[in-house]
Write a structure and sequence with these properties.
By secondary structure, this protein is of the alpha/beta class. It contains 17 helices and 11 strands. Helices cover about 55% and strands about 10% of the residues. A hairpin with a 5-residue loop joins strand 8 (about 180) and strand 9 (about 185). It starts with 9 loop residues before the first helix and ends in a 7-residue tail after the last helix.
Length: about 425
């Protein structure tokens, strides 16, 4: 096993390997059709990360089709812009779709599925739309997405469409954004996770990782995929191929940790910068430089592992390295889940709080039973681990908001000292 040189930069390596992992993913390609004004852009911005409809590069590929992409996001969307349903326009759009499908067949650009969007509160579907849906479904799997699905009429419209037995793969009601009824009552967004699930059932297996990277509607799905991968990686690397090493060579863990963290970052599809990763990793490495932190991570971890403190200066076993690396992976996944959630909600992220959260979760995960480390991914069925991370972060936010400024703390301390040392105290 080759020892990294002293100038090895873990953070830069994580960023480079993450980018390489994403580039290797076969992209997923989805056509989004529907009349103007049905909420296609709102759907795109809430299903996919980084508000793709607004920030992605849209290039016309035909008169009625626009290709939307963004660097670093392994998905291509084709939007039927300005779609009107006069017979002449409909025939042109159908021809353009058929040509595009044929042109991209058997390539990385091959279209995998179609979202055909209909506004649910219209409670009607035109004959021209029915014909278009039938024609498209002859060559591609179609999901009917009922946007702005508010109340009983939307449910009735969904049942009506299902009873029509159209040749579609699924019908899905969605509310892409929270809908405010009054100051006291807001309908939360819904249906997006179900849309993600139904899409994953339609697209090729090799493109599912790219779709999970691109989507932001189901953070728990990202976390579960990352934890499943990390569990296998740690079991394979440390359970079989990791030989005991002297503690002085603990930095040999770094390349393995880099591979682990880069793959997890690629699964989440978060655009992390150096400062964010430095804050997260420094929380357990104890250094702001984040270069050659493997030894420091192990050293800091030993005090949390019963019986491990006696081997400082001795030998690190595969089991000990596995415990430390598992805890690092689990904690990193939980912190990325918070980041992904904050990004989805358009909220700012406090790097100081992320660092404290990483340190807190790392300590907790180091104390897990070995059997828990191997099966913890299953806890996401009930969201226990993520709920704990969310709760911890919320508590840290509350502490920060309620923190007393230093000058006021000093003033209180001085006043208390003076009061306690008066010649007499008032009762």
């Amino acid at each position: 096993m080759k020892k990294p040189n002293s100038k090895y930069n873990m953070i830069q390596e994580i960023l480079e390997k993450t980018e390489a992992e994403v580039e290797k993913m076969p992209p997923v390609n989805i056509l989004i059709a529907g009349k103007t004004g049905v909420g296609k852009s709102t759907l795109i911005n809430n299903v996919f990360r980084e508000k793709l409809a607004d920030t992605g590069i849209g290039k016309p590929v035909t008169k009625h089709l626009r290709r939307i992409t963004k660097e670093g996001i392994p998905i291509v969307l084709y939007d039927t812009r300005g779609l009107e349903l006069q017979e002449k326009i409909q025939k042109q759009v159908i021809r353009e779709i058929f040509d595009l499908v044929e042109q991209n067949k058997n390539s990385r650009e091959a279209i995998h599925a179609v979202y055909y969007c209909i506004q649910a509160n219209s409670s009607r579907i035109e004959d021209t739309e029915i014909e278009m849906i039938k024609e498209i479904s002859e060559i591609l799997p179609v999901i009917l997405v009922l946007t702005q699905s508010i109340g009983k009429p939307a449910d009735e419209f969904s049942r009506y469409l299902e009873n029509m037995n159209l040749p579609v793969a699924a019908v899905q009601n969605v509310m892409s954004e929270p809908y405010e009824i009054s100051d006291d009552y807001v309908i939360p967004r819904f249906g997006l996770k179900q849309l993600i699930e139904k899409t994953l059932q339609l697209i090729p297996k090799e493109s599912r990782e790219a779709f999970n990277n691109a989507q932001q509607a189901d953070i728990e799905r990202k976390a579960k995929a990352a934890r499943r991968w990390a569990s296998r990686y740690v079991a394979t690397t440390f359970g079989v191929g990791f030989a005991p090493i002297p503690f002085s060579d603990a930095s040999l863990l770094v390349p393995m940790q880099v591979t682990l963290l880069a793959h997890i970052t690629a699964i989440f599809g978060i655009s992390l910068d150096k400062s964010t990763i430095v804050s997260i990793i420094a929380a357990v490495g104890g250094t702001g430089s984040a270069t050659m932190i493997g030894k420091t991570v192990v050293a800091n971890a030993f005090k949390f592992i019963p019986g491990a403190g006696t081997i400082i200066g001795g030998i690190i076993s595969g089991t000990t390295a596995s415990i430390v690396t598992s805890a690092l992976a689990l904690s990193y996944i939980e912190v990325l889940s918070i980041i992904a959630t904050k990004e989805k909600e358009g909220e700012s992220i406090d790097l100081g709080l992320l660092e404290r959260l990483m340190r807190s979760q790392f300590k907790k995960n180091l104390k897990l039973d070995r059997s828990e480390l191997n099966t913890k991914e299953l806890e996401f069925d009930n969201d226990d681990a993520l709920n704990d991370a969310y709760s911890t972060y919320s508590d840290l936010e509350d502490e920060t908001r309620n923190a007393v400024p230093l000058p006021k703390k000093v003033s209180r301390a001085v006043n208390k000292f003076v009061k306690d040392h008066l010649p007499f105290k008032r009762e």
